[in-house]
Amino acid sequence: MSDVAIRCEGLSRHYGEVIALQDLNLSVPYGSIFGFLGRNGAGKTTTMRLLVGLGHPTAGRAWIAGVETTNADSRAREKFGYLPQDPAFYTWMTPREYLDYAGRLFGMSSTDRKSRIEEMLELVGLQDAAHRKIGGFSGGMHQRMGIAQALLHRPPVLLLDEPTSSLDPAGRYEVLDLLDKLRGAVTVFFSTHILADVERICDTIAIIHKGQLLLVAGREELRERYPLNTAVLERDIASPPWSENLLVALRAQPWITGVTQEDGILRVVVNDVAQGKQALLPLILQQNIILTRYEWVRPTLEEIFLKVSA
Amino acid sequence: METVIVFAYAISILLMVVTPLVLAVLLRRRFSVPWFLFLVGSATFIGSQIVHIPLNEWLADVGLLPALGSLEGFPLWRTALILGLTAGLCEELARTVGYALLRRWRRFEDGLMLGLGHGGIEAMVFGGVQVAAMLTSLMALRGVDLATLNLSAEQMAALTRYLDFLNRSPLWAALPFVERCLAMVAHVILSLLVWRAFVQRKAWYVPLAIAYHTVFNAVAVYVAQQTESVVLIYGMLLLLLTPGLIWLWRVWRKEAGPRPTAAPLRVEWRCFMAAVRKELLQQWRTKWVIVVVAVFAFIGMFSPLAARFMPEIFRSLPGVEQFADLIPEPSVADVVEQYVKNLQQFGFVVVVLLGMGAIAGEKDKGTAALILSKPMPRWAFVCSKFTAQTLVYVVGFLIGALCAFYYTWFLFGPVSMGAFLFCNVLLFVWLMTYVAVTLTGSALMKTVGTAAGVGFGGSVLLMLASSIPTLSSMMPGALLAWAGQVGLGMSSEPVTANGGALVATLVIIILCVLGAMAAFERQEL
């Protein structure tokens, strides 16, 4: 068996003049948690729909676990579990009934279905709601239900389309924690525009923008690829705040490309590290700021993403 | 013996309707060819007949062809040749238009499916519907003194020959089926000849197809008039098909693409059964079963009650006393009339309301996308909805019919259970047409509202088509008249069966369900 869980070759989808996805070539290794990162409208959902066979590619092919998914071969659907961006269930069913229906579609035996349903309900924390109608579920419960139905038949590959985008912080934490638990057992292909989620759990990252794949790399490799070009400065509590004049002055420097401040921490991104190291500190100290931290760091994933998809 | 003959013909009719579908399913499983192409093939046949039938009538008017039912005074070879040529021209040119419009479908397998669709609908209409119509007409003529029918000698001879079939061995019932099978093979060969014209950019394949079609039909007409030997007639046709079959075999070996791996049939069947179960559960949980049963039970109870008491209510109205004697006494005929009318009005509305969201609603909400990302084949998704609705209406009809029967018996005295049940079977088939039309609308559209529009619009169009004089006897509307007559059988009135309308309605239902599947399998979710 190949060690590639998901493979795309020249996958494209055009809607008339609009290019939703162009020539996507991608290989996702087994066991990875693969973050598919892109802004809204970048082509993430289109890719997902093509991968699971709900959309028809204009060109190209895709395989999951070695079975082609772009030729309407329904055997391929046993190889993956899919969670769409806004999973919709039969509202008149209970989670147990829905999972039972899904289990029947996958040909699971009655005994296996029963035990696996309980296992899944426990995994996603829906045992207490197992007899309630899905129609009354919150967004977070829907998402957890979606993960349960996607994992029910023990697929080797899990495709999740923005699984955390509609969740509150607690719900996000729960879902990410759940996915983290699957590490190594299942290949997770996970699309999102929330960088913190990717940074937290993904070991490999792809960035897509306007239908084009811009880069694919391991999370650490990606950060290693970018130099220490960001100065982090934290002022003392007794120090005057970062003044608007200072921020304007910094932004006016030709060697500075970005300045952000949050909770008393200033992040200055430069394009000339040597000059930055020489000139930045004197500019700050001129304002009588007392620093408790001054450090040169690599850019965050967000900064890399913004740079790549600019 | 008579029952055996009717049964044999019923089997033959069934085979003529079902065989094209079975072959199409096999083709789909082997080559992953869409249903859409079967329907395009059917459309090319229907389109060709829209020109072909008036063309032949015009040629008869100008004296180049004999009038229908008479060959007298016309050289047989010329008649056979002209009939063959008009069929060849109309059908092959319609096929050419079909291929010209289908630019994306140029595989060998696509040509096979187009040919099967063309020959398949011909088998259903010219085979199933016509044989059923003829069989019921002949059954009605048994025991009738033909001399009282005011027929020409030639017509009388033909009618006597046809009636003679009812006295022959039941094996003769297989002949129409064999004939349609040969015609289907011919259509597949002809379809691939026209396909060749497009893929090889050699236009001469089209006149070749026309010539082949002309010769095939002309020989069929000529030989059938010259001999009654079935072996000779079918032997000649098989002989004519042989070069085409050899060519087809050679092209198949050269052009057929790789065989895609389809999911095992048992997997697809398992999904279908699971989906039917879910649909039935949904009908129950969403109270639709109760609504359907309540509506049909109400119709069943209300019709005899209204028939029985409406005249009394009218008589009791102030000012009507002087006309009281003019209001007729109610009878079973009034019950049947009320029952058919009520089912026509309320039943139709219920099926559109119940069916409009079946697929469109799931597409709109997103539930279809999630389920279809599992091993559920799209045909199973569509067919499960049709099957579940059919079962719910069976229950509704049974309860409604039992209510109507009981109240009629109670208010008007003993009536024939068999006749009333058969009347309900006919009404049920009529109603299922609108279930199928609404399902097609639901598959075509993205929202429930637009699906309802298409469902209502399609149903109204079908009703209007039922009122076109040349079509009316073969449309679903004719079943209402038949059902009314059968129902009247409860009061010993004569009944004229219309097997043609019954089979035609079943064919319309099949085409609608195929249309829903064809539309849905090509959609993105």
Can you describe what's shown?
The complex is a heterodimer of chains A (310) and B (525). With 310 residues, chain A is of the alpha/beta class. Chain A folds into 2 domains: 4-219, P-loop containing nucleotide triphosphate hydrolases (Rossmann fold, 3-Layer(aba) Sandwich); 226-308, Alpha-Beta Plaits (2-Layer Sandwich), CATH 3.30.70. Chain A is built from 10 helices and 14 strands. The model of chain A has no long low-confidence stretch (mean pLDDT 87). Helix content of chain B is 78%, strand content 0%. Chain B has 19 helices and no strands. In chain B, helix 6 packs antiparallel against helix 7 (205-226). The N and C termini of chain B lie far apart (55 Å). The mean pLDDT of chain B is 88. At the A-B interface, helix 2 of A face helix 9 and helix 13 of B.
Properties at a glance:
heterodimer; A: 310 residues; alpha/beta; Rossmann fold; Alpha-Beta Plaits; six-stranded mixed sheet; four-stranded antiparallel sheet; 14 strands; 33% helix; B: 525 residues; 19 helices; 78% helix
Topology:
The complex is a heterodimer of chains A (310) and B (525).
Chain A: E1 4-15, E2 18-29, E3 33-38, H1 44-51, E4 59-64, E5 67-68, E6 80-83, H2 95-105, H3 110-123, H4 139-151, E7 157-161, H5 169-181, E8 187-192, H6 195-201, E9 204-209, E10 212-218, H7 219-225, E11 230-235, H8 244-251, E12 256-262, E13 265-270, H9 273-285, E14 291-297, H10 301-308
Parallel strand pairs in A: 3-8, 3-9, 6-7, 7-8
Antiparallel strand pairs in A: 1-2, 1-4, 4-5, 9-10, 11-13, 11-14, 12-13
Helix pairs in contact in A: 2-3, 3-4
Chain B: H1 2-31, H2 35-61, H3 76-101, H4 108-141, H5 153-165, H6 174-199, H7 205-226, H8 230-255, H9 265-285, H10 288-316, H11 332-355, H12 360-365, H13 367-372, H14 378-412, H15 417-444, H16 448-465, H17 469-472, H18 477-488, H19 499-521
